[in-house]
Write a structure and sequence with these properties.
The structure holds two protein chains of two kinds. By secondary structure, chain A is an alpha/beta fold. Helix content of chain A is 24%, strand content 12%. Chain A contains nine helices and seven strands. A five-stranded parallel β-sheet of chain A has the order 2-1-3-5-7, sandwiched between helices. Chain B has 13 helices and 14 strands. In chain B, the strands form five sheets. In chain B, strands 8-7-6-11 form a four-stranded mixed β-sheet, covered by helices on one side. In chain B, α9 crosses α11. The chains are: A alpha/beta, B alpha+beta. Chains A and B meet through α1, α2, α5 and α7 of A and β1, β2, β3, α1 and α4 of B.
Chain lengths: 313, 450
């Protein structure tokens, strides 16, 4: 029998789970021989309250390895995460939502209650609708990364995470050695051509395509920041590159920071402002500055604006 | 006070839901619900963002169909800024969208749904899953994993990211397709078409014929249908077309996407975070009553197959004709969603090949000139799980002022509730139930691929 493993998803989109599948053919021996999956809602039918649903306490089986995707945004997520922590020897936070809040933590920049009420008052919604409260889990005050709520043993960010890192995380545990995961920035792994600072003083929106010759490799394209586009490469953890270049850059599109900060406790907004300043670029030309935290708004970094600040923005 | 059976989590689906079956003192079903457990708030937290950034934020609504959100969003932003993508930009987007449908259908049929049929609905939960399939049919499973991976890698090679894509941009596409890339994609797509045809034959022999009684009874309800069809010939469309809303009697109205608000309403029940769209234009209100539902229509594969006049590609058209000869139009049996899904799988392969063979596909004029401005745009694509609507209003700076989203799955929340109640009521009598029987209730949900 393989190593017992439990998977759970919290406030998530299933992209991390698809990324696990994108390990490809190598996944077959992992899930049939190396691991013995005892709980995984997306793939198998183990139930929280017994297989016939009569139980009253949410229960996940004991497992050596636990993998959690998604951030923590409601009381059910919290209950599931705490149960995973109790039952799993090693707990892995997989994906940027689990490690830094991810896109759903953009809600942390708003007054959650007002926004939720607004969602049930959009122009298409029947008049008089209220926020549902019956048999649905109540929200927490904000969206949390997993390590704000329980101890996490290994962080594997990415939106989505790189299948190679997922496999490495699992295999390193099986081999009882530390996982080898990237420590550099996206810029450090980017092959685009850099000619030096100084020409660009204002950033432009991504409303025109980058300048490049499509028949030439990425290494012949000039750095997108030097072309005047906001590119989060300097302040984003590396790891997305699969075919020689960071994945957005390989589509000739600038980075938006989806692997979270380079140092796990970093602040992508502050770090990017510093990076722009040191390149002589006016940070006031960044439209919607707060969305530099669009992948890492947990840990109290993204907060609702108070009215006075709204005017300044 | 009777018992409540909490089937949680509903498993082998793509989101967060639980089923609650309320039994009376005699052990018969009093009521049953599918509770949708999750709300993230995309409609609100995209407010204020530069609209051209939104297609790479809303793709995170769904990691299984991120291309659908990415492209519906790009179409909505095109509308806000009043830009028409270049012909090549338009076709590259469609190619990626249709290609993404291929992976999705392979994933759903083999990884999520097939365990119920290959291993049987009553198999123990510990083996009734894709790992069980790998052990029971290793050659088939290896082929399935290879084919799904091939589709994903085709997207990744060309567009940088398969999951949470970034290559669609307002005005078109971020990069052109090179001739060598085109040839490679074409070769791979022909392999996928062969596999798609094999899959339908496999399913006809091993699933649809073998489980015909289950298909004709489990979760069966009577509703209308919503899909997208070609503006000229009424053939099924995934990327662009007009909307068709059909009643259960087969009569229908067609409308343009931007007018959706005149036809569809969004109802809210206090026990599900997801809203429940319904056919407002039928003027009968909203009611989940199994015998006399009001305003209820369905979306996703079976709906698209029902509303279209034909399929525009030959192998898919042949499959549709056979399907209609057997099950009629509109077909109502819920488990036929699986059959319709495999017809669409064939179409998606054929359509991708068509697009790759279009003479302008490698043109380098992939993005039109764009100016941010105030406007409204409605972007609609057919996502695997149903008609996906992104409706944005922008301010003078081209930032999002307000947004309304109707996500594919939500069209089916009301019908799924009906199918759950139908299945539970039919199966649970006098307090007798077991895990296999409760799994059948979940099978009624799984058919909708929520």
């Amino acid at each position: 029998m393989g190593v017992t493993t439990a998977l759970e998803w919290l406030s998530s989109c299933s992209g991390c789970e698809i990324s696990i599948l994108n390990i490809g053919e190598d996944l077959i021996p992992i899930i049939t021989e190396a691991l013995d999956i005892v709980h995984a809602p997306v793939l198998m039918d183990h139930k929280y309250f017994g297989q016939t649903g009569e139980g009253t306490v949410l229960t996940i089986p004991e497992a050596t390895v636990g993998i959690v995707t998604g951030g923590v945004s409601n009381h059910e997520h919290l209950e599931v995460l705490e149960e995973m922590r109790r039952k799993c020897t090693v707990l892995i936070a997989l994906g940027t939502c689990a490690t830094h809040g991810g896109i759903p933590a953009l809600m942390n920049g708003q007054n959650r209650k007002e926004s939720w009420e607004g969602i049930y008052k959009t122009r298409g919604t029947d008049p008089g609708a209220q926020v549902p409260t019956i048999e649905v889990p109540a929200p927490l005050d904000r969206v949390y990364a997993c390590d704000e709520k329980v101890k996490i043993d290994m962080h594997v960010p990415g939106c989505p995470p790189n299948p190679a890192h997922i496999a490495e995380a699992i295999i390193s545990l099986l081999e009882n050695r530390p996982a080898v995961l990237p420590t550099k920035s996206v810029c450090d792994t980017c092959p685009t051509r850099r000619e030096g600072k100084g020409e660009v003083h204002m950033l432009k929106r991504f409303l025109t395509n980058a300048e490049f010759n499509p028949t030439e490799p990425i290494s012949e394209m000039r750095c997108l920041l030097e072309q005047g586009y906001l590119c989060m490469g300097p302040v984003t953890a590396a790891g997305c590159a699969k075919r020689g270049a960071p994945s957005c850059i390989s589509a000739r599109v600038p980075c938006r920071g989806c692997f979270g900060p380079v140092r796990r406790e970093g602040n992508q907004l502050l770090d990017m402002m510093n990076a722009l300043a040191s390149n002589g670029i006016d940070y006031n030309s960044v439209i919607d500055r707060r969305s530099l935290l669009r992948f890492s708004g947990a840990h109290g970094l993204l907060k609702p604006l108070i009215k006075k600040e709204v005017e300044e923005e | 006070m009777g018992t409540v059976l909490n089937i949680a989590p509903v498993s082998r689906i793509e989101g967060h839901a639980k089923i609650a079956i309320h039994l009376d003192d005699a052990g018969n079903v009093e009521d049953a619900f599918l509770h949708i457990q999750s709300l993230r708030g995309f409609e609100k937290f995209i407010e204020g963002r530069p609209a051209e950034e939104v297609p790479r934020i809303v793709n995170r609504i769904c990691g299984i169909c991120p291309w659908m959100h990415h492209l519906a969003s790009n179409k909505a932003v095109d509308g806000c800024f009043g830009v028409t993508p270049t012909p090549t930009g338009h076709k590259l987007r469609e190619m990626c969208q249709v290609l993404a449908h291929i992976n999705d259908k392979i994933l759903h049929f083999f990884f999520l749904a097939a365990p119920d049929f290959v291993l049987g609905p009553d198999a123990d939960y510990s083996v009734r899953n894709v790992i069980g399939i790998v052990k029971a049919a290793p050659e088939l499973a290896t082929q399935v994993v290879k084919m799904r991976q091939l589709g994903q890698m085709m997207l990744e090679r060309f567009a940088g990211k398969a999951i949470h894509p970034i290559a669609g941009v307002v005005g078109g596409f971020a990069k052109p397709l090179l001739e060598q890339e085109r040839l490679d994609l074409l070769t791979d797509c022909r392999t996928l078409l062969d596999f798609a045809c094999y899959t339908l034959d496999f399913a006809k022999a091993n699933v649809f014929s073998k489980y015909l009684d289950v298909i004709c009874s489990l979760g069966v309800i009577t509703t209308g249908f919503l899909g997208t069809v070609d503006r000229v010939d009424g053939s099924m469309r995934l990327y662009d077309g007009k909307q068709r809303l059909m009643k259960a009697d087969g009569t229908y109205v067609d409308f343009e996407g931007e007018d959706y608000g005149n036809y569809l309403g969004e109802h809210v029940e206090p026990w599900a975070y997801s809203k429940m769209p319904y056919a407002k234009s039928w003027n009968e209100g909203f009611d989940l009553n199994l015998d006399a539902p009001k305003g209820i229509y369905r979306a996703n594969t079976l709906a698209r197959i029902n509303v279209c006049d034909k399929m525009s590609t030959p192998k898919a058209q042949a499959a549709l004709e056979e399907f209609r000869a057997t099950f009629g139009r509109p077909a109502q049996a819920t488990l036929l969603y699986h059959y319709a899904r495999l017809i669409e799988l064939i179409y998606s392969c054929e359509r991708t090949i068509e697009l790759l063979e279009w003479e302008g596909i490698t043109d380098t004029n992939v993005r039109a000139k764009v100016e941010p401005k105030a406007g409204r745009g409605v972007g609609i694509v057919e996502a695997p799980r149903g008609t996906l609507i992104h409706d944005y209003v922008t301010d003078a700076n081209g930032c999002i002022e307000s947004a309304n989203l109707i996500v594919g799955t939500t069209h089916n929340i009301a019908p799924m509730n009906m199918s759950v109640k139908q299945a539970a009521t039919m199966l649970i009598k006098d307090g007798k139930y077991d895990q296999g029987l409760l799994n059948r209730v979940e099978m009624a949900v799984r058919a909708y691929d929520p």
